[in-house]
Amino acid sequence: MLGTLTKSSAISSKVMAAVKSAPRFSSALLHTQPIYQDGYDETTAPINAFGARLGLSLDTNVLKQALTHKSVDSNNNAKLEFIGRKVSGLFVTEYIHSKYPLIHPGAFNTTLRAYVGNKSYSKIATEVGLQHIVDWKVPEDDSVKLGQSAVLADCMHALVGAIYQEKGQDAAKKFIHDFVLSRDFDVRPTIKVQEPKRHLSMLLKQLNKEPAVSRLVSETGRLSSSPVFNVGVFSGENKLGEGFGSSLKMAEFRANQNALISYYGQEYKDFTLPSDAENVDKYVANPLGNTQAIV
Question: What PANTHER family does the entry give (predicted)?
Fold first, then answer.
């Protein structure tokens, strides 16, 4: 995958709060207090504690089902996972579309996978301690590959599905924004294309702009063993992008790539999500970008 979470080793503020709120016990307390009190259910207590840490108000049975992987035969989370994946995709899709309305489909899909793909959801699940309470079964058939990472991602999606099913779309949306979309993602690497000069030419034609022209902006050490060329790409008097390299060809390639990133990666700061249309006095739809240039 071209794009990676820029905070790959960081934990979102919501996740950090959940981790910090995990109970701590002194050794003296562990030795002087009875382990289980009257009415204590050792099978559901860890699940309830997990839900409390994440601020979930789900029924214990629903939460337990969400954390029971579909590899377990009965009362598993297969349906909740299916719903959760669709719900996750919906709310992350509207967020990406609203924030980057001009991003091309390839980069859009890569960005979407970076947020809701198994790698991301498995990492979030691990950070909140899901690996300690999920119920799953290793397949008896050796040809079926099922690892803990996939199980955690499935259960995380099921958790979203359970929230949506029991508490509604607003609660599910809040959970996704708190735990998933709170992570920064750099879309720029996902925008890169194999033939940027050709792509930019077609894009400018589609936008009815003047054709791109490459110009040498500066250079150093042309006759040395390590020259550096700085090339700008222009449409009329407007500079679209700039790039450097050890050859004119490399610098021009990077300049065209930079121009595409500048266009497709335009970020909107002030936007209203479509799902929030009913919560504002006057909803103004976000701009709808052009179809990606056909190369």
Answer: LARGE RIBOSOMAL SUBUNIT PROTEIN ML44, RIBONUCLEASE III
| 4 falls within a domain | no
Q: What is the pLDDT of residues 256-269, one digit of tens each?
A: 999 999 999 999 98
> pLDDT, tens digit, for every residue of 152-211?
999 999 999 999 999 999 999 999 999 999 998 999 999 999 999 999 999 999 999 999
The residue range of the domain holding 211 is: 190-264
Q: Is residue 7 part of a domain?
A: no
3-class secondary structure, 187: coil
Say if 175 falls within a structural domain. yes
DSSP character string of 102-121:
T--HHHHHHHHHHHHSHHHH
Radius of gyration (Cα) for the chain, nearest Å?
25
First to last CA, the chain: 22
**194: its two tokens:** 């194999």
| Cα–Cα distance for residue pair 193/254, rounded to 1 Å | 11
Q: How far apart are CA 184 and CA 152, in angstroms?
A: 21
Domain shared by 88 and 226, yes or no: no
